[in-house]
């Protein structure tokens, strides 16, 4: 074996074949011959390759009239862009499209008619990512941002004509405004935040390459001896470049009207009658003192009401800090008045409401002003405390949300027509437990504005999740704002997990749900409680057909000191206790699953991950996917971490052996990231495993000198901490084999590819059994399909090397009852308590 160009394998074995290679030669050869690269990628068995197909439930967006449902396929995680993101004042964004990095992105949209089942597949949408899909009030148009690598443009799809079209060739600017457009309430057009000059700056691909000439790199960071990130002159100029924009009114017929002059907009909102615009503009002179929170909370913004051509009609608020020094000195001293929480009344054409108080006053009052904004603002209502925001409903019911001193919110029902009359404190969230959830349901009113869904002037609709005995059960309720009472409307029932997506009838008796079970993927349904009917709207098939007969159970291990380690245990179809024990792969998950980490239910459909250990259940091995093994953290490091890892691993391995499942000589362990670091730690600290697989881990913390923080936490101030957590210094204690995998484009500062290179070099020189596989196109998280397939191929080959041949027959008298195998002996005869959750 030796260097293979493409996926690049370097191996040292302690058997008859011993290969030693310098890492310089390895790295240099990595990027030769693209033709050779394509030829060298391998694939695992079809059953394992199946896991590369990511399971994703389309997000459903029901139109305001309850007729159509947009089904949006989310872009796979970490495949959203190849452009390196930028961060300014706490905002991480794409510097070319200017869209925020954490916005959900979609790769496809379909439309499903809820009553007839008709399906529309839009045509003519170029390749790109769909962001911020948003229905018009009529439900005829869906607006969305189409983001490419170089820019983001506003598009609409016309349901009636079944056509997609771009609204403007002007690129959007989403840096200062997370969502840089909004519908006019009447649906006649949209307001959009546009790049001033539309200039597109190309960015070179962010990949490692071999230079053909001397390479000179200068540092870009300035010395900073505090943890506080400075917003210096360079960052301020960058901020000005990205934040300077122009507002436009875009009609559905393709017209584009500039609104006023370019400015540093931090917010805008059109009035319900679509005749006026509330705008917030940052005073750029305050940039040197601006902090991330100032930017987020719009503390340095001037608020004005404009006409639709940009003519200022009324200045609502100008913060004291934005006044020039000469202006402040010329004014007599008066107590400063603060205005905030600006919002258009939803039941009026153009009436703005805000909260107002003086600096010394703990209570705020509500004020309002109406078109044509020529009169003095009038007092609207008094409050006891500080206003958070107002939730508008209909002309009879709205909710005033107040901030309380304990960080919680208080909710008060009032009539928008008589706001100063007695208000009723609502017990909407008072009885809510920490593990339960509840949210109000919204709709659009006759003006086309988002409002609370209200029935009969007093009833609100609430969807939520009740948690009982550690299990979540979604529900729909009606809340009487006058009587302060909840009335159950519907609740999910076992063996399904079904949640309300949207309520589509005025009385709350007809709604759309998403329903799944342990063995059935999620699909959408329409429920009509009046006629007791249920119609299935989508028919998603099982994404992993080969997993349908695989046994899965939750295992819990008491590892001492009150600590419980949990994991999902998978058994292959071929497992028969009469044939003896089988090999086990224990996989360490560095984090909980992203999509359902907050949901606790035995009825969730199991999402599988090609990057976990689950695929190898198809090789005839048992797989334990551990959720919460102790990992390196600010609270757990050094010898204490090593002890907890040893204790946990010893209990897990001993239990699997005692249960009659695991062959003690054929147990492997693997992990990614911090999980990989734990793998190497365990191989050095124990003799429990026949081999290990470590992907993209951190093994030498002296190569990342700020891993534990700045100043006194840096390598130079706390060397022992970095040395004690660097498992490379334990390499001499590793007596079993190890396969290292790393993405060569890994830009994570703690896990540059050199981490695996150095560990490989150390183990190689120590005469250990070690293999290194480099994936030339992958970063810290592997997203390239051909490289994931090759990674699975390499892992499969490595495990077979250590696990085969599989045993044929071995008598055992200790089989878990829950797996419905041979009856076990009484539990008291086991050395360890049963880990099987009942």
From TrEMBL:
| Pfam family of the protein (one) | Peptidase_S9
Keyword annotations of the record: Hydrolase, Signal
Q: Tell me the domain of life.
A: Bacteria
Indicate whether Cell division appears among the record's keywords: no
PANTHER family registered for this protein in UniProt: GLUTAMYL ENDOPEPTIDASE, CHLOROPLASTIC-RELATED, SERINE PEPTIDASE S9 FAMILY MEMBER
Q: Where is the Peptidase S9 prolyl oligopeptidase catalytic domain?
A: 653-803
Gene Ontology biological process:
proteolysis
Instruction: Cite the GO molecular-function annotations of the record.
Output: serine-type endopeptidase activity
* InterPro entries (UniProt xref): AB_hydrolase_fold, Peptidase_S9_cat
Write the signal peptide boundaries.
1-38
Q: What name does UniProt use for this protein? A: Peptidase S9 prolyl oligopeptidase catalytic domain-containing protein
């Amino acid at each position: 074996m030796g260097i293979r160009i493409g996926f690049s394998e370097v191996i040292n074995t302690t058997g008859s074949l011993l290969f030693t290679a310098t890492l310089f030669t390895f790295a240099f050869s990595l990027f030769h011959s693209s033709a050779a690269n394509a030829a060298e990628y391998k694939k695992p068995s079809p059953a394992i390759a199946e896991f590369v197909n990511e399971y994703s439930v389309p997000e459903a967006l029901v139109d305001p009239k309850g007729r159509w449902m947009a089904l949006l396929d989310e872009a796979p995680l970490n495949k959203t862009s190849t452009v390196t993101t930028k961060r300014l004042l706490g905002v991480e964004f794409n510097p070319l499209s200017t869209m925020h990095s954490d916005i959900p992105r979609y790769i496809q949209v379909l439309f499903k008619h809820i009553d007839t089942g008709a399906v529309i597949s839009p045509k003519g949408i170029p390749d790109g990512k769909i962001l911020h899909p948003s229905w018009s009030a009529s439900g005829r148009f869906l607006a969305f941002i189409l983001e490419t690598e170089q820019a983001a443009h506003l598009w609409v799809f016309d349901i009636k004509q079944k056509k997609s079209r771009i609204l403007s060739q002007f690129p959007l600017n989403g840096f200062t405004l997370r969502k840089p457009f909004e519908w006019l309430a009447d649906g006649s057009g949209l307001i959009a935040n546009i790049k001033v000059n539309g200039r597109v700056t190309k960015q070179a691909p962010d990949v490692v390459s071999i230079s053909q000439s001397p390479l000179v790199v200068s540092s870009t960071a300035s010395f900073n001896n505090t943890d506080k990130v400075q917003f210096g002159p360079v960052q301020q100029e960058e901020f000005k470049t990205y934040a300077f924009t122009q507002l436009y009114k875009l009609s559905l017929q393709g017209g584009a009207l500039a609104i006023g002059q370019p400015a540093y907009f931090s917010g805008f909102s059109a009035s319900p009658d679509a005749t006026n615009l509330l705008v917030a503009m940052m005073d750029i002179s305050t940039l040197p003192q601006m902090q991330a929170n100032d930017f987020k909370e719009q503390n340095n913004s001037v608020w004005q009401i404009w006409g639709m051509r940009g003519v200022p009609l009324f200045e609502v608020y100008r913060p004291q800090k934005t006044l020039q020094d000469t202006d402040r000195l010329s004014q007599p001293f008066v107590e400063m008045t603060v205005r905030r929480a600006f919002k258009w009344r939803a039941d009026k054409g153009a009436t703005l409401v805000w909260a107002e108080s003086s600096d010394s006053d703990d209570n705020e009052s509500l004020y309002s002003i109406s078109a044509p904004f020529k009169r003095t603002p009038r007092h609207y209502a008094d409050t006891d405390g500080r206003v958070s925001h107002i939730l508008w409903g209909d002309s009879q019911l709205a909710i005033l949300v107040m901030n309380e001193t304990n960080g919680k919110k208080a909710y008060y029902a009032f009539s928008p027509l008589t706001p100063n009359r007695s208000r009723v404190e609502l017990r909407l969230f008072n009885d809510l437990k920490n593990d339960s959830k509840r949210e109000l349901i919204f709709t659009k009113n006759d003006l086309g504005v988002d409002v609370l869904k209200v029935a009969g002037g007093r009833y609100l609709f609430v969807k939520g999740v009740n948690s009982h005995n550690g299990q979540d059960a979604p529900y729909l309720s009606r809340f009487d704002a006058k009587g302060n009472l909840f009335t159950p409307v519907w609740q999910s029932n076992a063996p399904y997990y079904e949640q309300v997506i949207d309520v589509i009838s005025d009385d709350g008796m007809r709604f759309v749900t998403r329903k799944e079970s342990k063995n059935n993927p999620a699909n959408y349904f329409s429920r009509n409680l009046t006629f007791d009917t249920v119609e299935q709207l989508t028919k998603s098939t099982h994404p992993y057909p080969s997993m349908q007969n695989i046994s899965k159970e939750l295992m819990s291990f008491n590892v001492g000191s009150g600590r419980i380690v949990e994991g999902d245990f998978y058994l292959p179809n071929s497992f028969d206790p009469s044939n003896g024990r089988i090999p086990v792969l224990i996989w360490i998950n560095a984090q909980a699953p992203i999509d359902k980490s907050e949901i606790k239910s035995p009825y969730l459909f199991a999402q599988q991950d090609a990057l976990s250990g689950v695929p190898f259940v198809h090789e005839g091995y048992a797989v334990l996917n551990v959720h919460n093994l102790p990992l390196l953290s600010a609270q757990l490091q050094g010898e204490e971490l090593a002890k907890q890892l040893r204790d946990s691993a010893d209990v897990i391995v001993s239990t699997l052996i005692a249960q009659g499942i695991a062959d003690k000589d054929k147990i492997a362990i693997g992990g990614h990231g911090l999980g990989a670091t734990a793998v190497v730690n365990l191989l050095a600290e124990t003799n429990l495993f026949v081999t290990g697989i470590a992907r993209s881990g951190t093994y030498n913390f002296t190569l990342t000198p700020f891993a534990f923080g700045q100043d006194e936490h840096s390598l130079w101030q706390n060397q022992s901490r970095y040395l004690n957590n660097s498992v490379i210094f334990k390499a001499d204690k590793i007596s079993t084999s190890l396969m290292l995998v790393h993405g060569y484009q890994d830009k994570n500062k703690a896990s540059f590819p050199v981490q695996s290179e150095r560990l490989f070099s150390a183990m190689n020189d120590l005469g250990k059994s070690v293999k290194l596989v480099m994936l030339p196109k992958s970063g810290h998280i592997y997203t390239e399909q051909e490289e994931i397939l090759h990674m699975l191929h390499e892992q499969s080959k490595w495990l077979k090397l250590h696990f085969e041949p599989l045993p044929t027959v071995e008598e055992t008298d200790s089989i878990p009852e829950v797996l419905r195998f041979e009856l076990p002996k009484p539990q008291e005869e086991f050395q360890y308590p049963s880990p099987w959750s009942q």
